[in-house]
Please model this.
Amino acid sequence: PPALPAPGVYQMSVSEAAVPGEEVGRVKAKDPDIGENGLVAYSIIDGDGMDMFEITTDYETQEGVVKLKKILDYETKKSYSLKVEAANVHIDPKFISNGPFKDTVTVKIAVEDADEPPVFLKPSYIFEVQENAASGTVVGKVHAKDPDAANSAIRYSIDRHTDLERYFVINAEDGNIKTIKALDREEMAWHNISVFAVEVHKQHQEAKVPIAIKVVDVNDNAPKFAAAYEAFLCENARSNQQFITISADDKDDSANGPRFIFSLPPEIIHNPNFTLRDNRDNTASVLVRRDGFSRQKQDLYLLPIVINDGGVPPLSSTNTLTIRVCACDGSGSLLSCNAEAYVLNAGLSTGALIAILACIVILLVIVVLFVTLKRQKKEPLIVFEEEDVRENIITYDDEGGGEEDTEAFDIATLQNPDGINGFIPRKDIKPEYHYLPRPGLRPAPNSVDVDDFINTRIQEADNDPTAPPYDSIQIYGYEGRGSVAGSLSSLESATTDSDLDYDYLQNWGPRFKKLADLYGSKDTFDDDS
Model:
């Protein structure tokens, strides 16, 4: 049979913070048998901890495992005692007389104190406070304690994430909750906040509890019309004819709201035009008191109506019903009211407005077309001017005498003596301002070098801001006033005896060799012969 070790007592300990299912300790019985005859099962048969602990068998190690069954509290009970029995699972009938095949042992379990957070006396709190209560009104009180043996002092605070508007404040020492400002039930009927409790010397140990605060309704809102009512009354209305039904609203709770009581003010209760009937279902009907109305005499009536809510204390308000007198057909359908007629007389008819808008649109279209056509007409001119920029082909019909014709013209006659001392303005266009040519670009008065003359004219044309942007023919028809060099005509020179010396023509280069031969000295001529 199995035998538990002497003296038959196991000592174990467990923290009060342990969770159910956590292992507390193990016991083991010795059995010399092998195989199935050596299997042992464990059970708790007695003790004050039978409800708090349990034991299971580990068949691999043949040990009994003691586990926590319920949460422990060191402050409530500090130790427990268990009586554990170990017995063979299989018993050979041949050896029953040798029994019993079991043994018992006592297990002592000590509960260790653990540092626990504060505990509130209730898992949640519900308080009530009247709306519009003065600041500092006590809402309720919460209480928490330290479950540890030290019983540390507790401090309270409100979680401001749950009271962003700061309606409440709590006393840190006694847990009393008070209002900071007046509450309005119509704005917020319930306030849900949370309160923290922490130990004074162990700030990391804290507890949190939810608190719901109900704002009790106070009759502080008078009833009023449920909508902005406007009634339309036919001119041919009959006495006691109902023409509108009204209702009311009240922001207060039903205890201070419906049922509503409708009535006319005492000063007009006997008015000759209208009367009021309370339907006793939070509505009222307005009726006509006399026959016939004339909108020419009076087209608008304002009827005051008093609404009482019957609350404690009762509140009432006076609301005004607007009644318009309208023209109706025989069946009572509205045709027109004075408000509409006045608008039509004071303004323009719909057809007239449409006609005016149509005329404005037509004028705008005409203006747009005119501008468009005007731009299209300008485009050909622009194209013509652009085409005019192109180079013009100028045909010259004058025939020259060839490269060797050096006597056909006098190059000096192309130079205007008036332009020697200044700028010669263009004759083909009207210049906007005068251009002063650069000094040093004018040819010498008696220069006859054609290349220099042409290059000078090209530079003047390139730098002249009044010159047109296209090629043009320049006509030089100025005859001049004569030349200081005299005539170079070979005809006149051949028939006139002159003592002039033309030997300098030999120095003018090959272009003037012909002239040098014709007008050179006789000695030179004879030598050549």
User: Anything to note?
Assistant: Confidence is low (pLDDT under 50) at residues 339-346, 381-387. The longest strand covers residues 316-328.
